[in-house]
């Protein structure tokens, strides 16, 4: 029996889909059988990020409405044999699927896959609740900005209420020069407010946007920091202890990294 | 604390419906979340014919907003119809100081922690989170959200925190937000807020005994 992990944030546009695509791919590259499940019905884009848009025949709503079998809707990735995508429906809205249906689906998928990565919609309404209902664990994405941290905090509170055990944090789009100039929160500030374990820090990197537009998750190719960050996150998800990346060579930062090692 | 924990919400079947007993010794917010959990969880139990519900709150006097919240939770179960909400008449010990309630955890954005009496929170109150009590609020952690002490008019209530960085403070019916230019040095260390001349003032913790001499600790004086 595998494990289902929901990727969530409250705020939109902070990198849930990008993160889902990359850590799903990284987990598959590490030899796991992985299913990416896009629950952002009406605004699907995981298929685009994965470059699989033109292969969609059936979607999530077709599956739960039993218009097709789960296997028929699963799209095999072009590059990784062990990676599959179950796309969201584009024409329906969030009410097209219930929490019971999603719970059933993730249960079935976990029989088949080591990891089911659930990409969730923005917001804290029904779509969020549905996405979360199928999850064993949760990853919360926040960018180092007040508004994003506030929304992440709200989401963590709701996750606790929905009984999704101890969510883990990914700080996305980190820009060290902005922190130095005082224009951005530092990672340990974010961690101290949210008071949850840090799973990783992903730098802000244009290459990620490029890769997204090409439909090629950056972990597949790039040897840079961002790609490494995603792979390290995948390792930590699998229970390995990996030190945090030094995003910048500065003594103060290194000292902080050491402090974070306990979170790995 | 070797006491066996009673459930906060006890549900009993009676001949004319259901009786909900709400433990008076626990914070009402805790009772509410337990109640919500029970109403949501055992979904199939509740899906029966219409049932009369009596709620007993023990010695706890509940406020209008607390009652509203209570009714809202029950409205999720269409077949449960609240017949009465009963509070025991204030017993002799009604005015007794219930002591400080200690609770641990983070009060996150959107969450409200309410308590009748003095509250010691071991954890943070984040921006967007609220702590509201009828007595004083002590936070062993960072207070970054809203704290309201003396919620029913007690002007002697204070708010203290290891890191006092609130978005807003309220004591009794006075509202204040920290001035934009609060220096870090002013807020470093333990500080507390109190009411003086209908304004909220903030001072270092070691000044409390001067401002509230009645609670000052003195050597060689046994208490209790
Ligand atoms: N670490 C990053 N560095 C740079 N751009 C990023 C990063 N993460 C995400 N983005 C960009 O941010 C935008 C929103 O990302 P997306 O994953 O769609 O967010 P969400 O799913 O939370 O709405 C996309 O254009 C994406 O390429
Ligand atoms: Mg998305």
From TrEMBL, chain A:
Domain of life of the organism encoding this protein: Bacteria
Keywords from the named record: ATP-binding, Cell cycle, Cell division, Nucleotide-binding, Septation
Any one of the GO CC terms: cytosol
Gene Ontology molecular function, alphabetical: ATP binding; ATP hydrolysis activity
CDD domains linked to this entry: MinD
GO biological process, one term: negative regulation of cell division
Record carries keyword Zinc: no
Binding site for ATP: 11-18
Pfam annotation, one family: ParA
Reported function: ATPase required for the correct placement of the division site. Cell division inhibitors MinC and MinD act in concert to form an inhibitor capable of blocking formation of the polar Z ring septums. Rapidly oscillates between the poles of the cell to destabilize FtsZ filaments that have formed before they mature into polar Z rings.
Family according to the record: Belongs to the ParA family. MinD subfamily.
Name assigned to this protein: Septum site-determining protein MinD
Lineage, top ranks: Bacteria, Bacillati, Bacillota, Bacilli, Bacillales
Gene that encodes it: minD
From TrEMBL, chain B:
Top-rank taxon: Bacteria
Septum formation inhibitor MinC C-terminal domain segment(s): 103-201
A GO BP entry: cell morphogenesis
Pfam family, one: MinC_N_1
Domain Septum site-determining protein MinC N-terminal: 9-85
Swiss-Prot/TrEMBL keywords: Cell cycle, Cell division, Septation
InterPro entries, per the entry: CAP/MinC_C, MinC, MinC_C_sf, MinC_N_1, Septum_form_inhib_MinC_C
Coiled coil residues, start to end: none
Family note: Belongs to the MinC family.
Subunit structure comment from the entry: Interacts with MinD and FtsZ.
Function as written in the Swiss-Prot or TrEMBL entry: Cell division inhibitor that blocks the formation of polar Z ring septums. Rapidly oscillates between the poles of the cell to destabilize FtsZ filaments that have formed before they mature into polar Z rings. Prevents FtsZ polymerization.
Protein name: Probable septum site-determining protein MinC
The organism of origin for this protein: Paludifilum halophilum
Gene coding for it: minC
């Amino acid at each position: 029996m595998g494990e289902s992990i929901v990727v969530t944030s409250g705020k939109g546009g902070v990198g849930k889909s990008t993160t889902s695509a990359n850590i799903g791919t990284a987990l598959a590259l590490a030899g796991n059988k992985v299913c990416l499940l896009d629950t952002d019905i009406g605004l699907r884009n995981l298929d685009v990020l994965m470059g699989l848009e033109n292969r969609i025949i059936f979607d999530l709503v077709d599956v739960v409405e039993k218009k097709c079998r789960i296997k028929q809707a699963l799209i095999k990735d072009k590059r990784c044999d062990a990676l599959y995508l179950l796309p969201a429906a584009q024409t329906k809205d969030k009410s097209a699927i219930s929490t019971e249906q999603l719970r059933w689906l993730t249960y079935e998928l976990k029989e088949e896959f080591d990891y089911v990565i659930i990409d969730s919609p923005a917001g804290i309404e029904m779509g969020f609740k549905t996405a979360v209902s199928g999850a064993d664990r949760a990853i919360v994405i926040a960018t180092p900005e007040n508004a994003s941290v506030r929304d992440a905090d709200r989401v963590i509170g709701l996750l606790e209420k929905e009984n999704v055990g101890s969510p883990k944090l990914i700080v996305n789009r980190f820009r060290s020069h902005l922190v130095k100039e005082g224009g951005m929160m530092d990672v340990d500030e974010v961690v101290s407010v949210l008071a949850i374990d840090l799973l990783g820090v992903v730098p802000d990197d244009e290459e990620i946007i490029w890769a997204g537009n090409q439909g090629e998750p950056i972990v597949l190719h790039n040897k840079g920091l961002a790609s490494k960050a995603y792979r390290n996150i995948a390792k930590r998800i699998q229970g390995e202890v990996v030190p945090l990346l030094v995003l910048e060579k500065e003594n103060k930062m290194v000292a902080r990294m050491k402090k974070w090692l306990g979170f790995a | 604390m070797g006491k066996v924990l009673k459930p906060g919400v006890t549900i009993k079947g009676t001949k004319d419906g259901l009786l909900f007993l709400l433990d008076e010794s626990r914070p009402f917010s805790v009772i509410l979340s337990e109640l919500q959990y029970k109403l949501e969880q055992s979904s199939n139990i509740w899906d029966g014919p219409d049932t009369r519900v009596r709620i007993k709150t023990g010695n706890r006097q509940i406020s209008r907003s607390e009652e509203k919240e209570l009714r809202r939770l029950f409205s999720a179960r269409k077949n449960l119809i609240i017949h009465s909400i009963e509070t025991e008449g204030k017993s002799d010990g009604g005015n007794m100081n219930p002591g400080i309630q200690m609770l641990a955890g983070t009060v996150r954005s959107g969450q409200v922690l309410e308590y009748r009496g003095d509250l010691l929170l071991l954890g943070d109150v984040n921006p967007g989170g609220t702590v509201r009590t009828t007595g004083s609020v002590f936070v062993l952690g960072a207070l970054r959200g809203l704290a309201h002490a003396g919620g029913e008019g007690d002007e002697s209530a204070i708010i203290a925190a290891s890191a006092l960085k609130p978005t807003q403070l309220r004591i009794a019916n006075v509202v204040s937000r920290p001035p934009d230019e609060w220096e870090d040095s002013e807020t470093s260390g333990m500080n507390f807020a109190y009411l003086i001349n209908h304004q909220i003032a903030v001072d270092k913790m070691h000044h409390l005994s001067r401002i509230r001499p009645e609670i000052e600790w003195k050597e060689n004086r046994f208490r209790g």
